[in-house]
Amino acid sequence: MELWYTEKQTDNYGITAKIRETLVTEKTDFQDLAIVDTVEFGRLLVLDGMVMTTEKDEFVYHEMVAHPALYTHPNPKHVLVVGGGDGGVIREIMKHPDVEKAVLVDIDGKVIEYSKKFLPSIACELDNPRVEVIVNDGYMHIHDHKNTYDVIMVDSTEPVGPAVELFSRGFYQGIYESLKEDGIFVAQTDNPWFKAELIQNVNRDVKEIFPIVRVYCANIPTYPSGLWTFTMGSKKYDPLQVDETKIPDIDTKYYTPRLHKAAFALPKFVEDLCK
Length: 275
Description:
Layout: E1 3-8, E2 14-27, E3 32-38, E4 42-47, E5 50-54, H1 58-70, E6 78-83, H2 88-93, E7 101-106, H3 109-118, E8 131-135, H4 138-144, E9 149-155, H5 169-178, E10 179-188, H6 196-207, E11 212-219, E12 227-234, H7 257-262, H8 268-273
Parallel strand pairs: 6-7, 6-9, 7-8, 9-10
Antiparallel strand pairs: 1-2, 2-3, 3-4, 4-5, 10-12, 11-12
Helix pairs in contact: 4-5
Keywords: Cytoplasm, Polyamine biosynthesis, Spermidine biosynthesis, Transferase
Organism: Paenibacillus rigui
Active site: 155
C-alpha cells in the first residue's frame, strides 16, 4: 500500500508526495505539527497542513531570508529571527562572522524540539553560543525591545493561527521601533499567484513606515505556486545600491553575489502588485 501526503494549497489546487514514514504527529498548544519522510523531498515539516520546510529545497528559502538583508546592512551585529523554529535561517546567519548575537523567538517550542531531533541538517546551529533561543510570542518580543536590533527577519507561517498578527501594520510598526536607526527587516510575504492581495496589503503597510521598501523573489518548489516573495523594509540602506563585488563567496546553494540584485528584478505582474 502506498501512502501520500497532500497539501491542499487552495480550494482547487494542491501538491502531493509519496511518504516513506511518518516520524511525528502532535497537536501542540498552538498548531498541528507533523514531520514525514518523503521519497522526493526527504523530511517535511508540516504545520496546520502546510509544508514549512523540506530537506531537499529548504536552502532556497533560508538563504534568501538571511543573506540579502545581511549583505545590505554594512555592520549587522545583532539579529532577531521571529518564528523560524526549524533553525534554517539561524544556520544561514551563523555564516556571517560579524554577527555577534542572533536571537530566535518562536512561540511553539515543539517546533524547535522536533526540528533538532528530526531535521538536524537544518537545526544544526541552534546550540551555537552566538544564538539565543527564546520560546515566546515574537509580536510581544518586538514591542518589548526598542532600538535593539540591526536586522530583524520574520520567518512565519502563512497568516493563519498564531501567525496572523505577524502580517499586521502594528507588527511592522513595532519592528521599525525595535530596529536601530539604520536597521533593516525582511519578511516572507507568500506567493503572487494565490495571495496577490496579501502582497499588496503588506507592501502598502510597510511603505507607510519604512522609507525604502523592496520586494524580491525566489523559486521554492514545495511552496504554493513555487514562486515566493520576500519584502524588505530599510531605514537607510538600499539593497539595490550594494556593490556586489564586495559580497564574499560563502557556502550557499542558491544565493550568490550576482543574484543579490537580480532577485529584485520582478516579473511584471508582481511588480504591478507593489505599486
